[in-house]
Each structure stands twice: as C-alpha cells, then as structure tokens.
Amino acid sequence: MLRRFLMLTVLSLWGIAVVGCAPVQHWTVTPSNALPPTQGGITIPPTYSDPNGAIFNPSFSGNPRPPDVLPTCDTQANACDGQPYADGARGFRKLICSVDKANFHGHVNWEVATLVGRASWESWNYDGDFNLYFQPQGGNGVTKSNDVIDGDSSRPYIELEFYQPETMDRMSTDAWTELQTAAQAWADEADPEAPDRVINPKHPGAPSLAVATGLFGLDCEHGCPSEVHPVYALGIETESDDPHADKWMIFARNWGTEGFCSNKNHVLDVGALRVMIPRIGAAAPKATILEFASTYRQAPVPTIEYHASYGVVVTFLLPPGKTSPLQELVLSLDWGEQSPAIAGTPGSSPSQPPKANAQPADADLYLKRAATDLDKGPRIELQNSVSVTAATHRSNELRTGFPQQVPVTTVTSFAPIPPPFAITSNQPRIDLGAINQSKTRGDAAALAALCERYKDVLPDRDLSASAAVCNDARKTLAK
Length: 479
What we know:
The chain has helices at residues 2-13, 91-97, 174-187, 194-199, 363-372, 376-385, 432-453, 463-478; strands at 24-27, 55-56, 86-88, 106-124, 129-136, 158-163, 208-219, 226-239, 245-252, 265-268, 272-277, 279-280, 286-294, 303-307, 311-317, 327-334, 341-342, 397-398, 404-406, 408-411. By secondary structure, it is α+β, with helices and mostly antiparallel strands. The strands form four sheets. It has a five-stranded mixed beta barrel with strand order 4-5-6-8-7. Strands 11-15-14-20 form a four-stranded mixed beta sheet, with no helix packed on it. A two-stranded parallel sheet has the order 1-10.
C-alpha cells in the first residue's frame, strides 16, 4: 500500500499541471518545419505517413546508429525555456525537478508520429504516468540515450507514457478497467504480474503487437532519450494465438500532458484520429465491436476501413481537445481463412527491469524519498491531508448495444480529416475551473504537510528555496 500512497501524494503534488490551468500548445498531424535544432543537424526525415498524415515510424538521421541526438538548446542551462517546441517544469515543480542536474528539466518535442512495435508493461510511475516498454519496429525512433532491455543492444525501447487521471481513471470498458485494476495490484505489490496478464492474457510477460500515435520527442529531464508522451492513441493486440483472428484494446483522444516535469496541455487540432491495426491480408476481415465507451454521448461509433498498405484503420471522431475527450474500443477481427501478415519485429518482454544507464536522481525519486523518509505517524497525517479528486475529468460512458458486427469498407485513399464536432448544450461539460481549484488545494495541502514535517527545509533544497515554496503552499490554502 505504501507505493499506492506515494502515488497519491505525488498526484496531488502535481495538481497544478492539470489541463484546467495548463497553457495550451497546439499541434497538427502534418509534419512542420519548426523542428528543434540539434547538434550535428540531426533531423527526422518525413519519409512515410500514417493514415492521419503524421510521420510513420520516425527515424533520426545521422550516424552511427542509433545516433546521439542532443537538442542545441540543451547544451546550456535555461536555453530551452520559452522555445515553442519545449515543455518544462515551472513553479515549485521546477524546484523539485532540478534535483536532476540536467540543463533542461523537461521535454523537447518533435512531431506527432505513429510507431508500430511490441508493447509490454513497465510501471505506474510516482508522477501518475502509466509507462509501457515499446520495442519499435526496426529500432525506429531510438537514440543513443534510449535504454535497452536486459542489457541487449539489439532490444532498445521507447517509453509510451500517458497520465492516469487523463486516461485510466476514466475508462469504462472491461479491457481498460482490468488494466487499471491490474496496475493497482502491481502498485500494491500484491500481484506484480497482473498487468502482463491483461496485455497478453495467454502469454503473460511476452510483448504484444501494438501501435501508438502521440507526441514524439526527447525526455531531457532524463538524458534526452526518445519517447511518445503524451500518447494520443494506443492499440494493443491482446489475443493473437489464432492465426485467423485477433482482438484489440484501443483508446483515442486529441490532447494530453507530459508528466510532472512539464506545464503544457498538448492539444492535437483534429476532429478525427485514425488508428491503424498493422495486419495486412488479401482482403478485409470481419469486424465485431465488443465494447465502446466515450466521454460524450454525441460521439459516433468508430468506423472501420481496410487499406491494402495500412491494414485495418479505425477512425474515431472527436470534439475539440479543450473538452478533454476520450474514447475506448475493444475490437475483434475475423480474417476467415487468411493468415494476415504482421508489420513489426517480434520482441520479448524483460524478465527483470531493464538495466538502465546510470542517471542522477530525478523528481520521481526525490518525491519518493521525501515521503518514505517520514515515520509512520507523520506519513499517515500526510496521507490524510492529501485531497485527490476522484473524477479529475468527466468519466467515459459505456455504450449499450454491443457486441455488434460492423461493416468494414475497403478503401484506396482516406477522406480529409474533419474538424472537431461541437458539444451540444444538453451534454455535461467538464468543469475545468472546479477541477483546477480542487487539485490546486490538494497540491498545496500535500506540500504544506511535507513542509511541516521537514520544518520548511525540504531534502536537498537550500533554505531560501524551501521557504519560498512552503510559504506559497500555505498562502494557497489560506485563500
């Protein structure tokens, strides 16, 4: 239970970063020319596109392979601050993130991209992010700074990251709520294997074929490895033993944040997101939607198309990202007598945590240590002071009428992506003002409790910095 308590503590500490008060960074799916400059001029050539028009399986230029990718702004302290492609910690979070001696405490973002690979469970982090190991096809998108699994240089991975209150806490389908429950068992140290049994029920621990669309960039808080954060859409193949059938759990949205050491809400300015299922046969399969859930009742059921080059493509229609929409789908595909080819390189899940490169202590470890250093009594007091809003965003509504077989249209091209659909006045909206107020007070309460325990001298902080952040927390509570 201690790990779960620590997670709740950190989630409250990060309350100020919720979408309700975060500055908005807008993104499009089409590649732009405003890429972060790097040492050596390393870029991502837009060689291939996914069904949305976004970069598909991005690969950095440069040699040797994988290249050492370092943003120019990260070569000196504070140079990334204020750059349109950068998202770093601010306020008291920057104070905590600065435990790591990086030049930039945040993320340097490239483009929206889609990658195909193999996914397996990694962790539910102390900053509230769900993390998956993702071994990309052909090593696409990895840099010299990315870690490898079990010390095997042929198995580099990228982290897929999505924030729990934005995604998992709101899920309603059995598949995604089972993963949330399994993550809780993992966090409580009651059943460390539970998430693996959801991701790949028949072969727990083995990675599953997966596809991810999200904001692709570098996590320069941790040495600038590449990552997909936030994940906008994720599809995981959960059943693949039958060569003629497969089952997928998918979510899609057009917004998201980048974790504790960040401050922006990254809105994808599209009214539809296409999720490609990387299986290609001689003809379209039969498709059955087993479950569907959405934030808003106005959202139509996703449509399914088949393209000879992309495979099965599921299209989710979405309202504006500022309304925090989320959709979930559980899909079964029946290929008849076909045995569809898989676009991806088989990988394997680590038998133990990856042997990561040595790194300085970061914000997660700092917060963990600050809480675990407390005796049992003060720790309970801190836990009681934490106010975590159960419904940070509007929960999804599980639709009725499923399972249902749905048509699959064979196409040779895709229609233009429509603008976001409008939310009608009779549908509940998310009260971002109330969310912001509640989370900010929870944030201040947790921080004030830590300050009281440490007598305003937080671990590893100088006296003036600790006093400033502690006073700020108390002022917030007094309002």
